[in-house]
Amino acid sequence: MFLLVITFYIIIIFLETVPLLKEKNRGKTILYFTLIIFSMIISILLSLGIQLPSPSNMIKNIVVSIFGKSN
């Protein structure tokens, strides 16, 4: 499964990067690579069977700190 994830990401990066680099938009390229690397790391960890914590508690804490009540 690990190799399958890597293979798909290599294909996606190759297909998406060529037109993006031709645009010569540095901000968009940096954002794209940041997001694709972040999602690739998460996909690799999940394919290796590593349990990742749910972000829902952190999101709930942020919302409660902004709006001041939980329910």
Any overview of this molecule?
- With 71 residues, this protein is mainly α.
- The chain has one domain (2-67).
- Helices cover 79% and strands 0% of the residues.
- It has 3 helices and no strands.
- It has helices spanning 2-23, 26-47, 56-67.
- The longest helix has 22 residues, at 2-23.
- It is flat.
- The protein starts with a helix and ends with a helix.
- 0% of the residues are buried.
How do the strands and helices of this protein lay out in sequence?
Elements: H1 2-23, H2 26-47, H3 56-67
Number of separate strands: 0
Radius of gyration: 17 Å
Number of folding domains?
Answer: 1
Q: What's the shape?
A: flat
Distance between the termini: 41 Å
Main beta sheet: strand number and arrangement? none
Low-confidence stretches: none
Structural class: mainly alpha
Total of DSSP H or I helical runs spanning 4+ residues = 3
SSE arrangement, N to C: HHH
Helical content class: over 70%
The averaged pLDDT comes out at 88
Oligomer: single chain
State which percent range the strand residues make up: under 5%
Keywords: Membrane, Transmembrane, Transmembrane helix
Transmembrane segments: 6-22, 29-50
